[in-house]
Write a structure and sequence with these properties.
It comes from Streptomyces sparsogenes DSM 40356. InterPro entries: Cro/C1-type_HTH, DUF5753, Lambda_DNA-bd_dom_sf. GO terms for molecular function: DNA binding. This is Putative DNA-binding protein. With about 260 residues, the protein is of the alpha/beta class. The chain folds into 2 domains: about 60 residues, no CATH class; about 200 residues, Endonuclease, Chain A (2-Layer Sandwich), CATH 3.30.870. Helices cover about 50% and strands about 10% of the residues. It is built from 11 helices and 6 strands. A hairpin with a 6-residue loop joins β5 and β6. α1 packs across α2. The longest helix has 20 residues. The chain is globular, with a radius of gyration of 20 Å.
């Protein structure tokens, strides 16, 4: 079977099959199961063995030192990516979060999680942020952030003020672009929710669209899907404030949070 035939059978992109075959992408147990079914591998012991190997192979990334990370597939993509285009309607981008804000976000999202698990996730998030400050190959990040994410008081007004000030500081980095999308801009293509477009330096690796879910995540690699989300992102960037206006806007919201903190 050709890579095209396998991709069509599994309803995935050809680039995903190519990445798996060339060892450029970690393989999940489900991938192994689906490929074995496609290749008509009927030896259950062999399939089980391959699936176990897939499980063990996923322990090679730095994130595995933190235990069972539920979005390890995404971290693998992010680690290999050259650039990210992110739209965030509810929370500020994870790669630009302060430790205090990150802890407040994770605690709110996982109200029943033990403190140890929350601390672990915060550490993973901070470790991911090292890509932004990597002097050798910093990750190119473009983030469009909805006003709702800036107005929502996560943790406390003090945490929000410090977080937004940090966001402005990071926006001055040459490889980081932050645009604010105010309420007054009205409806826009991103109203369906958060998404991230990951792009890679190797031309043979097509871009990937990441959609975060509560219990499972979705990765879109088909050219038409990536193209649709890329077009959506261009519209979002056009509707958002420019870089200088965004810094002024975010700074003013930060001051409002600071005044709220001072007032008690």
């Amino acid at each position: 079977m050709t890579a095209e035939e396998v991709a069509e059978e599994l309803m995935v992109s050809q680039s995903k099959i190519s990445r798996l075959e060339n060892g450029r992408r970690s393989i999940s147990q489900r991938d192994v199961r689906d490929l074995c079914r496609t290749y008509k591998v009927e030896d259950k012991a062999l399939v089980d063995s391959l699936m176990q190997m897939a499980k063990e192979s996923r322990q090679q990334g730095w994130w595995n030192a933190f235990g069972d990370v539920p979005y390890s597939v995404y971290i693998g993509f992010e680690t290999d990516a050259a650039s990210l285009r992110v739209y965030e309607p509810q929370v500020l981008p994870g790669l630009l979060q302060t430790p205090e804000y990150a802890e407040a976000v994770i605690s709110g999202a996982l109200p029943e999680a033990p403190q140890e698990q929350i601390a672990q996730r915060v550490q993973v998030r901070l470790r991911r942020q090292e890509r932004i400050t990597d002097p050798a190959a910093p990750l190119r990040l473009w983030a469009v952030v909805d006003e709702a994410a800036m107005r929502r008081v996560v943790g406390s007004p003090k945490i929000m003020s410090e977080q937004l000030e940090y966001l402005v500081r990071m926006s001055h980095e040459p490889h980081v672009t932050v645009q604010a999308l105010p309420f007054e801009m009205g409806s826009h293509p991103g109203m369906s929710g958060q998404f991230t477009i990951l792009e890679f330096s190797d031309e043979s690796d097509t871009s990937v669209v990441y959609l975060e879910g509560v219990t499972s995540d979705l990765y879109l690699e088909k050219h038409t899907d990536v193209q649709s989300y890329s077009m959506m992102y261009e519209h979002l960037r056009a509707q958002a404030l420019n870089v200088d206006q965004s810094r002024q806007f975010i700074t003013e919201v930060a001051r409002e949070h600071a005044r709220r903190h001072e007032q008690g």
